[in-house]
């Protein structure tokens, strides 16, 4: 199903014709790039942002093509069949079959290895990578845990978030009750409004793209809660055979973001952790005034109860190639494994 979202200000010139078997054309908007997207509000928001950026950078019209996946029609099953993996696979299949020209994913939802046949054509500049709290009564994490006779009920199904929030609570001599939750952003925040939960943990980037940042009651410092590898970044993929399209989409690429997420995902891969393992990672740039000096990569892995965390960081020259970014991640993984990280990753909650 196509969704005609092409605004009137698109230059009439269509893109170059003849891009091979997946070439655009024949639809309502000849020459438009077909961007495959899930139908969730967040996916549509992310796809819309990328579509707009492509139009701006290239002048090419872009149309969104909604891909309905098994996971979209069968909510109950989703937790069982592996969460976001099903969505990623459905979008990728649509690209590989030539039904769409490109797809947009949340980078943190992608497996750490790039599949054959698909190119990561662009990693646009990343949004705020932090996790945030949406809590009742405008409370912060500290306020929540200090408030009331019983442990605060905090909604998150993420072992990474649980491990770090539990550790933080322990440090302050309090306890929280982490309550596994699933579902979209509306559902999760709804659990706070209904009083079922005291708070939920979400990614700032998702709320920002949905225009709901004003509902955040606490931005969690990355010194306390390291985000998921790749959190806040988007991945723009196209077929590997379509080098001309990859070159066009490459205009959206932010080399620093790409280097950072490459290092973070390399760490995750080298720890041989699944995408739902309790691994946090964040690479950032260390600057001296305006001059970028180094890239720092921080990592954490822990038990979900927060009793044990292995935290480590490393710095190195800003990577100038994919391999250098990968090496930074591997180096940190080796250090974390030497500190006992492997023993903490037995729990793989899906
Ligand atoms: N796991 C689901 C998911 N995948 C990407 C985002 C948010 C957007 C992002 O991190 O880029 C979310 C929701 C959340 O964690 O709150």
From TrEMBL:
Describe the location of the Porphobilinogen deaminase C-terminal domain by residue ranges. 260-337
Swiss-Prot/TrEMBL cofactor(s): dipyrromethane
The UniProt record lists the EC number as 2.5.1.61
State which pathway it belongs to: Porphyrin-containing compound metabolism; protoporphyrin-IX biosynthesis; coproporphyrinogen-III from 5-aminolevulinate: step 2/4
Composition skew (Gly residues), residue ranges: 20-29
| Binding note for cofactor | Binds 1 dipyrromethane group covalently.
Q: What does this protein do?
A: Tetrapolymerization of the monopyrrole PBG into the hydroxymethylbilane pre-uroporphyrinogen in several discrete steps.
Protein name (Swiss-Prot/TrEMBL): Porphobilinogen deaminase
Q: What is the lineage of its organism?
A: Bacteria, Bacillati, Actinomycetota, Actinomycetes, Kitasatosporales
Per the record, the gene is: hemC1
């Amino acid at each position: 199903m196509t969704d005609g979202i092409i605004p009137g200000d698109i230059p009439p010139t269509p893109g170059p014709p003849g891009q091979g078997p997946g070439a655009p054309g024949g639809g309502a908007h000849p020459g438009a790039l077909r961007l495959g997207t899930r139908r969730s509000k967040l996916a549509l928001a992310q796809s819309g942002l990328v579509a707009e950026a492509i139009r701006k950078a290239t002048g090419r019209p872009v149309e969104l093509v909604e891909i309905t996946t098994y996971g979209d029609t069968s909510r109950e099953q989703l937790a069982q069949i592996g969460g976001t993996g099903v969505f990623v696979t459905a979008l990728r299949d649509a690209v590989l079959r030539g039904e769409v020209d490109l797809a947009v994913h949340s980078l943190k939802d992608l497996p750490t290895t790039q599949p054959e046949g698909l190119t990561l054509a662009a990693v646009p500049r990343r949004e705020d990578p932090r996790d945030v709290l949406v809590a009742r009564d405008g409370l912060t994490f500290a306020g929540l845990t200090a408030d009331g006779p019983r442990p605060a009920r905090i909604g998150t199904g993420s072992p990474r978030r649980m491990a770090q929030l539990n550790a933080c609570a322990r440090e302050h001599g309090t306890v929280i009750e982490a309550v596994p939750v699933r579902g979209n952003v509306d559902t999760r925040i709804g659990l706070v409004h209904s009083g079922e939960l005291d708070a939920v943990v979400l990614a700032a980037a998702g709320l920002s793209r949905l225009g709901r940042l004003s509902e955040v009651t606490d931005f969690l410092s990355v010194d306390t809660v390291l985000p998921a590898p790749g959190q806040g970044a988007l991945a723009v993929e196209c077929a590997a055979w379509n080098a001309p399209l990859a070159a066009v989409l490459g205009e959206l690429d932010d080399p620093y973001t790409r280097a950072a997420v490459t290092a973070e995902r390399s760490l995750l891969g080298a720890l041989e952790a699944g995408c739902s393992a309790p691994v946090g990672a964040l690479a950032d740039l260390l600057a001296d005034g305006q001059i970028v000096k180094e890239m720092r990569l921080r990592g954490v892995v822990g038990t979900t109860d927060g009793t044990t965390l292995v935290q480590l960081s490393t710095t190195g020259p800003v990577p100038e190639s994919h391999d250098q970014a990968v090496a930074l991640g591997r180096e940190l993984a080796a250090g974390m494994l030497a500190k006992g990280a492997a023993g903490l990753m037995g729990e793989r909650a899906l």
